[in-house]
Amino acid sequence: MLLGDTWAQLGAREIHAGLTGGDALQLARGYASDDVVGRTLGMAAINALTRCVFDRTGYVAPDSADSIGELDPRADDHVGMVGLFGPLLGRCTAAGARVTVIELREDLVGEHDGYRVTLDPAELGSCNKVLCTSSVLLNGTADRILDHCAGADRVAMIGPGAGCLPDPLFRRGVTLFGGSWITDAAAVVDALRAGESWSAYARKVAIRRDEYPGLERLGVLTGRRPPG
After folding, report:
1. Which pick of 7, 8, 113, 225 has the fewest CB atoms within 10 Å?
2. pTM for the whole thing?
3. Cα–Cα distance for residue pair 92/85, rounded to 1 Å
């Protein structure tokens, strides 16, 4: 909701009353629209439906091993970073890795201490490891970004919005999909209403491509088919 003016638009529109009791699948279809609010609410619905499917099939996402998508940066690596992850940047530069950051903000472009920022996603083509913000799923750049990551050994997509089914992303080359797994939904709602942190009621997870059974296999393993 913090991308662009989405938050302001959500506050300006009288859409909240129509959400309660609404059709979740219909709301999810808004993700395919050009309307920023429709896409945001659609993505939220998709993430909620995904968690419903996981819960019904008994799948529990594994804990994340670290905050950098398990990329294990090393001196001989060229790490691509889609979105400037300030707190995580130091992990890569401290390891001696070469870092290229892909950004949408022109004011950040240029050479910096230990890394370079560019607007050109094609430069990801020379990176063997990529750390990508899940925001690309909302801002319309996911396809273009993943096209340029085809040569990377590891592609980690992480962020609070990373809650959808990872199957299509794994087919596109993503090797790790990391987000937050809510452990106490009621407490999260209360915290949000109070303007407080909800991190104590969630855990960081990492769904790894080589471990994830896949949606169809999940149904087979549990003897139950996901709804829909």
Report:
1. 113
2. 0.89
3. 11
Strand ranges of the sheet holding 154-158, from the earlier edge strand across to the other edge: 110-112, 115-118, 98-102, 78-82, 129-133, 154-158, 176-182, 202-208
User: Which tokens hold the place of 170?
Assistant: 């794994």
Q: Using CA atoms, how far apart are residues 147 and 132, in angstroms rounded to an integer?
A: 13
Report CA Rg, the chain: 18
Selection from 202, 178, 176 nearest residue 189 by Cα: 202
pLDDT tens for residues 14-28? 666 677 888 999 999
Cross-strand pairs, 202? 182
User: Per-residue b/e over 57-89, b at no fewer than 16 CB within 10 Å?
Assistant: bebebeebeeebbbbebeeebbbbbbbbbeebb
Tens of pLDDT, residue by residue over 170-219, are 999 999 999 999 999 999 999 989 999 999 999 999 999 999 999 888 87
Counted residue by residue, the chain has a size of: 228
Q: Give the C-alpha separation, 28 to 101, whole Å.
A: 31
What residue type is assigned to position 113 of the chain?
D
